[in-house]
Design brief:
11 helices, mainly alpha, single chain, 75% helix, two-stranded antiparallel sheet
Length: 262
């Protein structure tokens, strides 16, 4: 008789322990964590919504103040997802407590679920806070609420995985900030967060399509207004593709122990 291979049970208790520990760190600075996006969003609307928006008119039939809401949410969610996940794995590497996690009865999948799940939860909460804050300044109508919620979670998970990769490869605290500050933020500003790429000259529209953030902002904007610069299906494929790449890198890191067991 052929041997029956049992599928190992998932260690939900271990996942919950990591998740709860990471969320406790978030809750300890809850005031600062909530105040920052509220103040930042308010300033964006004072500058872009009032000062510039009054001169912009409508874009694709949407008032400029409402038009920039998806871009504002993406700007924060991308940055916070990377920062939270990168810090979450780098800090135990720096203190040496990661060895205790690796020696615990947890598979790599369970470890990643704990860290990335907590980081994604924080990012989604901040994204919803920005949405609530924006609704105080401009009228917001979400054409596809379920798609909006699902796409928000997908982007948060994807870029938390990317942040996890950065946390593994970073050798010091400064390197943790390089990608979010020098790469993600500029790409978001150049990715149509505050304008439609249709407003660009023809050559620049083609160049903009090489910016991966364009697909994220465009897809998220479609869930609000039903129209976007790029087809929503294309945005989904691009996001899933990037997620698969991040998962492959993390799998390789756990399999080889690169920067995790050194």
């Amino acid at each position: 008789m052929s041997a029956v291979h049992e599928v190992p049970a998932i260690n939900w208790l271990g996942i919950w322990a990591i998740y709860r520990f990471e969320m406790a760190r978030f809750l300890r600075t809850l005031g600062q964590s909530l105040a920052t996006p509220v103040i930042t969003t308010s300033l964006y609307f004072v500058v872009f919504g009032a000062a510039i928006g009054s001169r912009m008119g409508e874009i694709d039939g949407v008032g400029y103040g409402s038009f920039i809401v998806p871009g504002l949410i993406m700007l924060t969610v991308l940055t916070e997802s990377i920062n939270n996940a990168a810090f979450g794995i780098y800090f135990p590497r720096w203190t040496g407590t990661l060895y205790e996690v690796l020696s615990a009865p947890l598979s790599p999948v369970e470890t990643v679920l704990g860290y990335v799940g907590a980081a994604a939860t924080k990012s989604v909460i901040l994204g919803l806070i920005i949405l609530a804050t924006a609704s105080l300044f401009v009228p917001i109508h979400i054409a596809h609420p379920l798609a909006m919620a699902g796409f928000l979670v997908l982007i948060a998970l994807t870029f938390c995985l990317f942040g996890f990769v950065i946390g593994i490869f970073s050798q010091n605290w400064e390197q943790l900030q390089v990608v979010p500050m020098l790469v993600i933020t500029p790409l978001t500003f150049l990715g149509g967060a505050f304008y439609s790429i249709d407003m660009l000259p023809g050559a620049w529209q083609t160049i903009a399509l090489f910016n991966p953030v364009v697909y994220l902002v465009s897809g998220f904007r479609w869930t609000f207004f039903g129209s976007a610069d790029v087809a929503f299906s294309t945005s989904l494929v691009a996001t899933f593709g990037f997620m698969i790449v991040c998962l492959a890198v993390i799998t390789w890191a756990f399999r080889t122990g690169y920067r995790l067991k050194q």
